[in-house]
Design a protein that fits this description.
The complex is a heterodimer of chains A (712) and B (65). Chain A is of the alpha+beta class. Chain A has 28 helices and 17 strands. Chain B has 65 residues and is mainly β. The chains are: A alpha+beta (712), B mainly beta (65). Bound molecules: iron/sulfur cluster.
Chain lengths: 712, 65
């Protein structure tokens, strides 16, 4: 790692706004076109309606972009906010940042929730939200120094390219003595050369004396950072305590924090053991329930899954405290030390790998037919260091592999590489190519939606088959769950505002295993409540895992166990204690509903956000091929006869595939109707005027967008 | 004798996880158990036998990512 050389090109001092009841009521705007640095006040009306976090991000983005703005236009804004509760040490999951921007993959707003200390440090430095617009004409580093109340922009000509070395170098450069005061946001070369670049948000792990990071993975936020030629954004801040947010009721805050943290300490060892295994416990569970993506979501289980789940990673993870926020009792952000990659620029060196989580294991392991914990670690390491989203990487390569096996593409197109399922070395080579932007990797790095076009136009691949097997919706690659047998989760993916990411709704077990929502109306109700409540975490700067990954022992005896209402009440208490706004559980849903609908209308403003954009590839709904059908013949035959009352005597498998498809596609359309009705949207998926009035988001510019789309 | 959620429970030869759950109140959300530290999911409840002295935790909900 070379020494860091930075040339200061702009510096301003500012009066650091105090944080009061979780808010600074200040926004920071940096325009890289002319290095303009502006600090604005945030109106109380904006605070009351948009709450913070994702709400603030979306509001300020809306002001920055036009309906015609593309992801790489200078006016596209990259926004980061922590929310009013973010930065509460000791509250489980109490320190997330939310990033939004216009996505290179979808063309619409994307949001990503991420750990690391940047969001809280930025807020305690005086800013609820920062927006980055414009493009620099040379690589720059931005420093927000809350200790010295200075904002600086540096020319950064000679810095390490990869996020792994860059985060470390900048942490030590900006506070050699107290590296724990620094959090760095970086992307990497893969973010420059693909459309699914991620952002790495760091924190200094004092126990291990090393820089760690978590990823804002989805939708290409890192690609936008790289396009603006921002090498890194750094926040520097000193000691953080429960008083840092100046909560309205410190005693109440201490009480609810202690109560939630204690429950996790007591129950996690008996439940998912996330402090030991992270989210890798999900690998065997999903595999057993036929929900683990295998071979591009063709199948849901594989015998090889036994060697890529918690049973293996528990022994590989380095022991120690692994909270990605201070004092988080779940402490699930594990890593592997002294890992030695066998390919690429770090070949033969020893590195620390942050991860893997379930999504990476499933996406870059089973989905690619790679049942090897070591290779998954190497893919995880390089994706982070290159600044690429492991979910989009895994799902995209899965699509490529199925195309290759079906001879839609051949070695002639892939530069001679055999990209059959399970080919570990060529998978790694493809990832290195993506990061460099060369070879076949340059095409794969554009994501599935663009690959489908390129393969059809240049390689004459069958567009209809690719549409069925290409696991993207709205342009975003699917996260890693098989949804064929859960109509509710098909809605959870297809109706998600940003595209198929499970952070809006994860209903597979409630629907498929417990049959808890048999009717369309039940499913629609779930697809209202769960996305609204999950949105609330993003408004406040929190992690959702402590809500329902560890649950009270008496939860099953409550009226609505799936909602874990005891915890929802604690979150309402948490919000009341910090902000002083007396809050009940239903208020949390109301807060989210306004922002949720605003985001839907933001999609509309960008030319999306209607029914036609809520479509799914058929593989998310059912078996595309004869091979898939015949892998679960009893299940599908029974559905045709018992559920749909068909006589299948004499039908061949292809006819059964077609018959099942007709039913399932029709069900999904009926689900859309039910959900739109429940959400107060038209049958075209647009919030009605009554809905926006009820939610108090009937601003003139919102009504204008609705009017342009026929809603008067 | 076996331990189920920290409580003693009578063990019977050839007892499966499915047999155990039939005797437990309100287990409608239990689709995964930890048997002697290992995860066992509902599709395998009927075939998985419980050894004597086993320690079992019923996992309450599977919440996804
Ligand atoms: S639960 Fe895990 S991911 Fe969430 S804040 Fe805590 S350590 Fe980070």
């Amino acid at each position: 790692m070379g020494s860091v050389k930075l040339n200061e090109i702009k510096a301003v001092s500012y009066d650091r706004a105090e944080v009061i009841k979780g808010y600074t009521d200040r926004s920071l705007h940096i325009n890289l076109a002319d290095n303009d640095i502006r600090i604005d006040s945030i109106d109380a009306a904006v605070r009351d309606k948009f709450i913070g976090g994702k709400g603030y991000d979306l509001w300020f983005m809306w002001q920055a972009v036009k309906g015609t703005t593309k992801w790489n236009d200078p006016e596209n804004a990259l926004c980061i906010s922590a929310g009013p509760l973010g930065g509460t040490p000791g509250y489980p999951g109490g320190g997330k940042s939310i990033v939004t921007t216009i996505s290179p993959l979808t063309g619409a707003p994307i949001d990503s929730n991420v750990g690391g200390y940047f969001g809280p440090y930025k807020k305690f430095s005086g800013f609820d939200v920062i927006t980055l617009t414009g493009k620099a004409d040379q690589d720059v580093v931005i420093l927000i120094d809350g200790i010295e109340s200075r904002i600086k922009i540096f020319n950064a000509a000679e810095l390490p390219d990869n996020a792994y070395d860059l985060s470390d170098a900048l942490t030590r450069y900006f506070d050699e003595e107290k590296p724990v005061n620094i959090s760095v946001v970086t992307a990497g070369p893969g973010a420059e050369n693909t459309f699914f670049g991620c952002l790495n948000f760091s924190w200094y792990d004092a126990g291990r004396k090393r820089v760690r990071y978590k990823q804002a993975g989805r939708g290409g936020t890192g690609t936008v950072l790289a396009d603006k030629r921002i090498k890194a954004v750094v926040a520097r801040y000193g000691a953080v305590s429960m008083k840092s947010n100046q909560p309205a009721d410190l005693e109440a805050l201490k009480t609810v924090t202690k109560t939630h943290a204690k429950e996790i300490h007591d129950l996690d060892p008996k439940q998912n053991r996330m402090a030991l295994v992270g989210t890798t416990h999900l690998v065997p569970i999903m595999n057993d329930h036929d929900c683990l993506p295998t071979h591009n979501f063709k199948f849901g289980s594989h015998p090889g899954a036994a060697v890529i789940g918690e049973a293996v990673y528990e022994h590989i993870f380095d022991k120690g405290f692994d909270g990605c926020w201070r004092g988080c009792a779940v402490a699930c952000s594990h890593g592997v030390k002294d890992f030695s990659p066998f390919t690429g620029p770090f070949k033969g060196t020893r590195v620390f790998v942050d991860g893997p989580e379930y999504e990476t294991v499933a996406g870059c392991g089973s989905n690619l037919g790679i049942f090897d914990a070591h290779t998954i670690l190497e893919i995880n390491f390089y994706c982070d260091a290159y600044g690429m989203d492991t979910i989009s990487v895994g799902t995209s390569i899965g699509f490529v592999m199925e195309c290759f096996e079906n001879q839609l593409i051949t070695a002639e197109h892939t530069g001679g590489m055999d990209l059959s399922f399970g080919n570990r070395l060529n998978t790694l080579e493809l990832i290195h190519q993506m990061a460099r932007g060369d070879g076949f990797g340059a095409i794969v790095g554009k994501g599935i939606r663009r690959m489908k076009q390129i393969f059809a136009e240049k390689f004459k691949a069958d567009p209809a088959f690719m549409q069925d097997i290409g696991m993207e919706s709205k342009g975003l690659e699917f996260s890693e769950y098989i949804t064929k047998e859960s109509l509710a989760q098909q809605g959870g993916y297809g109706l998600a505002l940003k595209g198929p990411q499970h952070d809006e709704a994860w209903l597979i077990f409630l629907d498929m295993v417990h049959n808890f929502m048999p009717t369309f109306e039940n499913k629609a109700e779930a697809l209202h409540w769960f996305p609204m409540f999950r949105t609330w975490f993003g408004l406040c700067g929190l992690c959702k895992l402590p809500w329902n990954d560890i649950v009270p022992e008496d939860n099953k005896d409550t009226k609505e166990p799936a909602k874990v209402m005891k915890h929802v009440q604690w979150y309402a208490d948490f919000f009341s204690a910090v902000t002083g706004r007396k809050t009940m559980p239903d208020d949390l849903i109301a807060m989210s509903e306004a922002v949720y609908n605003f985001q839907r209308i933001f999609n509309l403003k960008m030319g999306y956000g209607t029914r036609e954009h809520d479509t799914l590839p058929y593989r998310a709904m059912g078996p595309v091929t004869v091979e898939e059908y015949e892998s679960r013949p009893d299940r599908y035959d029974t559905q045709l006869t018992d559920t749909y009352g068909m006589d299948i005597t004499g039908m061949d498998t292809a006819a059964k595939v077609a018959a099942l498809r007709k039913e399932r596609e029709s069900q999904y359309e009926q689900l859309k109707d039910a959900v739109y009705d429940r959400r107060g949207w038209t049958r075209n998926g647009i919030p009605t005027k009554e809905t926006v009035q009820r939610l108090g988001i009937d601003f003139p510019e919102v009504l204008e967008v609705l009017a342009e789309n026929g809603i008067q | 004798m076996i331990q189920v959620n920290d409580q003693p429970f009578e063990w019977k030869p050839d007892m499966t996880i499915a047999d155990l759950l039939k005797q437990m109140p309100d287990v409608r959300f239990c689709s995964v158990v930890r048997l002697n530290g290992k995860l066992v999911s509902s599709p395998r409840f009927r075939e998985t036998r419980i050894p004597d002295n086993a320690v079992i935790h019923l996992l309450p909900l599977v919440a996804g990512g």
